Amino acid sequence: MEKWLKPLAVLATLVMFIVMVAGSLVTKTDSGLGCGNDWPLCNGKWVPEYTLASIIEYTHRLITGIAGIIVLLFSVMCWRFYRGNQEVRNLALFGMFFIVLESILGASAVIWPQSSAVLALHFGFSLLAFTGVFLLTGFVLQRDRMEGMVQAEAPKGFRNWIWGVTIYAYGVVYLGAYVRHTGSSMACSDWPLCQGKLIPELSGQTGIHFAHRLGAMLLLILMLINLIYAVKHFKDTRRDLYGASIIAFVLVVLQVFSGGFVVLFQLHLYATLLHSMIITILFGVICYMCLQSLKSPRLKMPRKK
Prior knowledge:
Helices cover 72% and strands 0% of the residues. By secondary structure, it is an all-alpha fold. The two termini are 35 Å apart.
């Protein structure tokens, strides 16, 4: 089991990442109803018609189903191999719960009309499902090195800080999904200004778009503060938090610029998908810091004489 666990962990994370990209592709191409209002069938058939929208939507469903099977297998293997480990159990349940929840929400969005606010939750729940698998993979890959990385407890103030930042980051992600589902992605047709102004008229789609920009800019500032603190306090004793803080800051900078590319390239498919890819990885890294902030150094048992 141990021989296959690490490759399976990488595969599970990769396939969940593909699910996130496929979901973004469905939204970008307006293929959510490519199979009509049928689920799990596609326009009443198991094999969809050869139209672009139906193929994109049906492929997304197929990938999600395969991902569910792989993640279930991965979770069960982890549960058995690390029997009695509360962290493994919680992460496995967390990932599977949100995979099922986002699948149900995706199916309901096809069968019954949904508001933009509810549709935005689909991406949010998918992101939480990916994060659960991502964190469980991190546990499997880093378990042998954990003692060397965690040499001191993270201060309580930092724990509260990073958990607050994570909740805020999830709000920014949800707002970004809401921008897409309300058709507000081009409400500000230029970047970094909005309609040629530093502060545009804050109403309608322009207000929604500009609120997301402000949210992303504040997240950039928060991750810069986080990086500065990590460099000062974690470089020697918490290599996990130190390294993750650097990666998170680089990713949030890339995320801000990728958002600009979405506008400047007028919703080009590659720019839009890149924006979704970066935020998926960024949120996973921030959640990793949350989880690691709770860990303490392992107590070494004295040797028997």
